[in-house]
Write a structure and sequence with these properties.
The protein has 319 residues and is α+β, with helices and mostly antiparallel strands. The protein is 55% helix and 17% strand. A hairpin with a 2-residue loop joins strand 9 and strand 10. The model has no long low-confidence stretch (mean pLDDT 87).
Length: 319
């Protein structure tokens, strides 16, 4: 089972925040998966989905919250789609109208009745109801990547207006969701691991949240170790490269004029470097007859390098 399916499975079992929250969650299902069939003065409501969790949660909410029993049918996907599709239908016009009123999709004014595709503000006016709406939207149209691979959570919606409204509801929790168009759909998405943790908390999916946090901790530790190793490797390569250059300069001086021609302090450092090619500057300094620090050894080695460059250019020994 994918991580996304685990999250939806956990969210589908969440009940108990009150009837107002259950109405908000149902509103998400109706907005995203619902189809209103208009028979003039009467309506039917059809909810069609390929997601078992949507069908299960809608059926339960209709029964427990609205005391309605929807007709439910399943159909195999056939050759193109391996899974099943589920259809829930409210054929009773009174029940359909009651549900559309409650979720804010049925707009009535001056004797005119109209179905309006919207997230009805009074339905999501409280924080708990906004949580419920996001939860329903995720079950209906959301997905989240396996955190072992990368961080990405999205909602795939059919129209820009619904996508923008959902984005605004998510961002009311101080997140930074964005909307992008992809082919003929509109995607509300989050890409940062910390924000995905936050939205799992908002939707009240503690088990998925803990799984994600555990993966984040391991990944952060691994990244930290890699950064340290890379830094240490870079420093080691730098030290080795400098030591090789120092040995080349010392060997050139010995072949041309001999190390004995160097000032006593430089000769001592040169011979120590040849004897201990893998030692650090600090360690070399401690081996001197009169010990000096890292900067002192580095200063002497730079002088040796200057002498070697002068000899290579045919200028003789610098004074």
């Amino acid at each position: 089972m994918s991580f996304s399916s685990k999250v939806k499975g956990e969210l589908s079992l969440h009940f108990g925040n009150g009837r107002h929250c259950e109405i908000a969650e149902m509103a998400a299902f109706v907005n995203i998966c619902g189809q209103v069939v208009d028979f003039g003065e009467n309506f039917w409501l059809k909810i069609q989905t390929e997601n078992f969790y949507v069908a299960k949660k809608c059926f339960t909410l209709l029964r427990n919250t609205f005391n309605m029993k929807a007709e439910i049918s399943t159909r195999s996907g056939g050759k193109k789609h391996r899974g099943k599709s589920y259809t829930l239908v409210l054929r009773d016009p009174l029940q359909a109208e009651t549900l559309l009123h409650a979720t804010g999709l049925l707009f009535e004014e001056a004797g005119r009745r109209e179905i309006v595709q919207r997230i009805y503000a009074p339905v999501v006016s409280s924080i708990c109801c906004r949580r419920a709406y996001i939860r329903g939207a995720f079950i209906a149209a959301g997905s989240v990547n396996d955190p072992n691979k990368n961080y990405h959570l999205e909602f795939v919606l059919a129209d820009m207006s619904t996508a923008q409204q959902l984005r605004d509801i998510i961002n009311s929790f101080e997140l930074d969701a964005k909307v992008v168009e992809r082919k003929d759909h509109f995607i509300v998405y989050l890409k940062e691991g910390e924000q995905i943790v936050d939205i799992l908390n908002i939707m009240e999916a503690p088990l998925a949240l803990m799984d994600l946090e555990n993966v984040r901790i391991v990944k952060e530790m691994r990244n930290d170790i890699n950064r340290r190793v890379n830094c240490e490797t870079a420093n080691l390569n730098k030290v080795v490269g400098a030591a090789v250059k120092q040995l080349e300069d010392i060997a050139y001086i010995e072949e041309t004029i001999g190390l004995a021609r160097l000032p006593e302090q430089l000769e001592e450092v040169a011979r120590l470097r040849m004897e201990y090619p893998d030692k650090s500057l600090k360690e070399l300094g401690s081996f001197l007859m009169t010990p000096v620090g890292k900067s002192g050894v580095n200063h002497r080695l730079r002088k040796i390098s200057t002498i070697a460059e002068s000899l290579r250019e045919g200028k003789g020994e610098p004074e």
